[in-house]
Amino acid sequence: MNKESTIGFGISLLTGIIVGGVVAMLYAPKSGQETRRMLVKKTTEAIDAVKEKSSVVMDSVKDVAHEANRKGHAAVYAIRN
To answer: What is the pLDDT of residue 1?
Structure first.
C-alpha cells in the first residue's frame, strides 16, 4: 500500500468514526442536555485528533518535498558537471 492510499484510508476511517459517533449519540436514549454535552466533548476530541493527524501528514509532505528538492539539486549538479 503506498503512502497516498494509507493517508486516504486514515482520513476515511477517521471520518467514518466521527459520523458514526454523531449518529450513535443522536439516537442515544439520553436527555438533550446530556447529548449536547457529549457532542461538544466528542467534537472537541475529533477536532484535536484531526489537528494531530493533519500535523503528521504535513510533516510527511514537508519531508517528501525536502527530499524531492534535494534530489532535484543533485540532478542539476550532476548534469552541469
So the answer is: 54
